[in-house]
Amino acid sequence: MLDLRPNCECCDRDLPPDSREAMICTFECTFCADCVTTVLGGTCPNCGGDFARRPVRPAVLLAKYPPSTKRVLKAEGCGPAEAA
Protein backbone atom coordinates (compact mmCIF):
# COMPACT_ATOMS: atom_id res chain seq x y z
CA MET A 1 0.00 0.00 0.00
CA LEU A 2 1.32 3.41 -0.95
CA ASP A 3 2.40 5.42 2.09
CA LEU A 4 0.81 8.86 1.65
CA ARG A 5 3.31 10.99 3.56
CA PRO A 6 1.96 14.32 4.86
CA ASN A 7 4.76 16.72 3.91
CA CYS A 8 7.60 17.65 1.59
CA GLU A 9 10.90 16.24 2.88
CA CYS A 10 12.66 19.38 1.68
CA CYS A 11 10.57 22.41 2.73
CA ASP A 12 8.09 20.71 5.10
CA ARG A 13 5.11 21.98 3.08
CA ASP A 14 1.88 20.16 3.93
CA LEU A 15 0.86 17.66 1.24
CA PRO A 16 -2.61 16.35 2.07
CA PRO A 17 -3.78 13.05 0.50
CA ASP A 18 -5.60 14.88 -2.30
CA SER A 19 -2.66 17.16 -3.21
CA ARG A 20 -1.82 17.36 -6.89
CA GLU A 21 1.53 18.92 -5.89
CA ALA A 22 2.94 15.79 -4.19
CA MET A 23 5.72 14.00 -6.07
CA ILE A 24 7.23 10.61 -5.17
CA CYS A 25 10.16 8.45 -6.26
CA THR A 26 10.07 4.64 -6.39
CA PHE A 27 10.93 4.48 -2.67
CA GLU A 28 8.03 6.84 -1.85
CA CYS A 29 10.30 9.71 -0.87
CA THR A 30 7.86 12.63 -0.97
CA PHE A 31 8.52 16.18 -2.13
CA CYS A 32 6.40 19.06 -3.38
CA ALA A 33 6.44 19.86 -7.10
CA ASP A 34 8.15 23.21 -6.42
CA CYS A 35 11.14 21.60 -4.63
CA VAL A 36 11.39 18.84 -7.25
CA THR A 37 11.67 21.46 -9.99
CA THR A 38 13.56 24.34 -8.41
CA VAL A 39 15.79 22.67 -5.80
CA LEU A 40 16.25 19.04 -6.82
CA GLY A 41 16.32 19.29 -10.60
CA GLY A 42 13.95 16.33 -10.93
CA THR A 43 16.24 13.85 -9.15
CA CYS A 44 15.59 12.33 -5.72
CA PRO A 45 18.36 13.34 -3.30
CA ASN A 46 17.90 10.10 -1.35
CA CYS A 47 18.13 7.48 -4.12
CA GLY A 48 19.00 9.33 -7.33
CA GLY A 49 15.76 8.26 -9.03
CA ASP A 50 13.24 10.40 -10.82
CA PHE A 51 9.80 11.54 -9.68
CA ALA A 52 6.18 11.01 -10.66
CA ARG A 53 3.07 12.74 -9.38
CA ARG A 54 1.73 10.89 -6.35
CA PRO A 55 -1.65 9.31 -7.07
CA VAL A 56 -4.65 10.58 -5.14
CA ARG A 57 -6.36 7.99 -2.95
CA PRO A 58 -10.15 8.29 -3.32
CA ALA A 59 -11.71 10.05 -0.33
CA VAL A 60 -14.07 7.12 0.32
CA LEU A 61 -11.04 4.88 1.00
CA LEU A 62 -9.12 7.22 3.31
CA ALA A 63 -10.92 5.95 6.43
CA LYS A 64 -10.10 2.33 5.62
CA TYR A 65 -6.59 3.10 4.34
CA PRO A 66 -5.50 6.30 6.14
CA PRO A 67 -2.53 8.39 5.06
CA SER A 68 0.62 8.45 7.14
CA THR A 69 0.91 11.03 9.90
CA LYS A 70 4.69 10.64 10.25
CA ARG A 71 6.47 13.70 8.94
CA VAL A 72 9.85 13.14 7.28
CA LEU A 73 12.26 16.05 6.90
CA LYS A 74 15.85 15.98 5.67
CA ALA A 75 17.81 17.10 8.75
CA GLU A 76 20.86 18.00 6.69
CA GLY A 77 18.84 20.22 4.40
CA CYS A 78 17.79 19.70 0.85
CA GLY A 79 19.96 20.17 -2.19
CA PRO A 80 20.52 18.70 -5.61
CA ALA A 81 21.14 14.97 -5.70
CA GLU A 82 24.69 13.70 -5.73
CA ALA A 83 25.74 10.76 -7.88
CA ALA A 84 24.59 7.57 -6.17
UniProtKB/TrEMBL annotation:
Domain of life: Bacteria
Alphabetized InterPro entries for the sequence: DUF1272
Name of the protein this chain belongs to: DUF1272 domain-containing protein
Originating species: Shinella kummerowiae
